Give the backbone structure.
Amino acid sequence: MEDEQSFSDICGGRLALQRRFYSPSCLEFSLSCPRITLRSLTAVTCTVWLAAYGLFTLCENSMILSAAIFITLLGLLGYLHFVKIDHETLLIIDSLGIQMTSSYASGKESTTFIEMGQVNDVVINEAIYMQKVIYYLCILLKDPVEPHGISQVVPLFQSAKPRLDCLIEVYRSCQDILAHQKATSTSLEGGDRIISASNRRSHSGMGAYWHRQEDKR
Amino acid sequence: MGLVSRGAAEAGLGAASAVDRPGPPDAVPNPTPTPPAEGADPGSSRPSMVLKAFFPTCCASADSGLLVGRWVPEQSSAVVLAVVHFPFIPIQVKELLAQVQQASQVGVTVLGTWCHRRQEPEESLGHFLEGLGAIFSHKPWFQLCRERGSKSWSCKATHWQGPASPAASGEDQVMLIFYDQRKVLLSQLHPPTALPNRQAGDTTASAGGLAAVFDTVARSEALFQSDRFDEGPVRLSHWQSEGMEASILVELAKWAAGPVCLFLACLLSLISAASACRVFKLWPLSFIWSKLSTCEQLRHRLEQLTLIFSTQKAESPAQLMRKANMLVSVLLDVALGLMLLSWLHRKDLIGQLADALIPVADHVAEELQHLLQWLMGAPAGLKMNRALDQVLGRFFLYHIHLWISYIHLMSPFIERILWHVGLSACLGLTVALSILSDIIALLTFHIYCFYVYGARLYCLKIHGLSSLWRLFRGKKWNVLRQRVDSCSYDLDQLRLLVVAVQGLIHLLVDLINSLPLYSLGLRLCRPYRLAAGVKFRVLEHETGRPLRLLMQINPLPYSRVVHTYRLPTCGCHPKHSWGSLCRKLFFGELIYPWRQRGNKQD
């Protein structure tokens, strides 16, 4: 089943969060970023062409104008193919792993898959960015040497940059699946104990942990 | 055990007349009544597990049969490698699997049944299939079923407890993951770059499930040897069951490679022995050989060719890639060199170059003389003191005079020398570039001498200035040392050009030497061979049916390909990067435009 909600990002742009529920163990979140607007495109093109025309009146060389057109076209293509991200997708499959896909405006897709064995936890961190305090969702990877340590932090939804309300939605669903995954993996090792929440809090100083408050709901 | 066939199944259990039964009527042993398939027991302490079944896409349209593959208990996943079709004799299947297990060290077993039928299976077939579970006991026992012509799949995984304990046989949910068997077989997984303070051995611990899948498929080649047209007792379905893939050219090349490699290896060993003989170790010759970049490049190429044509096989995929990269790089080099040669000869550029050389040399010498006159005199100049100015100026002028005389002496022979040098382009573009670099070095040696003197003086003055700056920031202002020298910047233009051109040529040669062309070509044309990881796509899903995923290979980005498979060069690569070149020019450190041996280890 599928549902769509509308949120906003940290700069105030509109985001659409699409959630697809394939099965209790497979969930997909798709966050689409604000599109490139006609206004900004026109503004950039006009600036470049005005500058080129100014140079042309100085140098009287018509190559400058053709070069300006060329640069604008190439710049636009390069921007659409390498820079502008259209939507970002997070696919969580219980007992397999977490996959992040970024689709660019030109259709290119870049995918990263992290196996469940490497995932320690999914948390919301807060960070100070210039004059703002922002929240971001990230995956904590296990340290192969130390079982409860963390080796790497992988931030999610870096181009969309949603606000906290959107992040909480994603976070809750991720934690449901991760809890189920941890329950089955510990039962494999034997024993019937319930996973204590303290297990999930055992990593050191990375910022505020929102699941502390969420557990009280 | 008798012959088990679908005919027997459809006619009901224990039927005496199957179509082709060779021996005495055998009865398929009656399966014990199936214990009621229970879902997760409310009283059980185990939450329902999700099992993963990796299914090859080539078997999705195969006829019904048995699933053969490997069960990985740590990941609770089953990797299906092939499907055994009816009719078969269980003993022969077990023998085949034992053979494969021995040959490939992979624990291949029968995992379950596969049913590809037109409509829902009948009750009797269901019992029959479960009966097979008793013959080939495996926990858990998978039962995959697909309706012909539709996309609805169903699968069950049961834990067969055996006739003794009919209770507590649980059913687990199964997730189907489709994979392309050929691509996974040929692909090589590159784990993400480990953190700097981890050793290489640690990566195996975190490699985990997907690496196990790739490993299983890659090592089970023995299972894929038999195809549909073989007369063996067991009929398998896998990616090569339509016939083994092979190419005539590849087979011919493999057959011819042995003798050719042997011949070339002997030839190369003769050449290396000749070059290592005592004559070349005498002092003046060995000094010259070590300084000329042409000799370095030739030695490097000889080493590479020896490695490529060595008669022992490569042990690991990384070594194979390295050999392939070297071979492609050598071939491209020779091709570019031949193109250069044909272009030079077509336009008769050598003659024109030889004719133009003398007037250019004369012109340069004249300009230098003017410059030195200007430097020796007032108002601008070296500004050390009048006598020192005169000494240095006269010294440089004498250098230029010697050089001009040398050029005029050589002028009748220039064209012949250049023609022979041009022939060396047959050995490769890098050799031609190295020779060009050496010629530039020899022709502009006098300029290099000026550069050395000037750079040393400039260096001294920079040190003086920096101590002055420290002093200024610190305590006292020494009036005696007030002077700013601008002389060195004037001489820089010509020197900068020459030294920069030499540095550029060296960097270009290093680039051609070290770029892994075969790996880049492979990444471009067969991206599934170099895998950075996998990506999953969820296929059409209906409620009540198992979840189906498609696993595709995520290719390695180009930057990582270059970084992983870069060939080691023998030149001064770390010393002569662009940044260090500029830094040395600015601070007046000496740049040695010839190669320094022994600085870089392979």
In short: Chain A touches chain B through 29 residues (CB under 8 Å). Confidence is low (pLDDT under 50) at residues 191-217 of chain A. The longest strand of chain A covers residues 119-129.
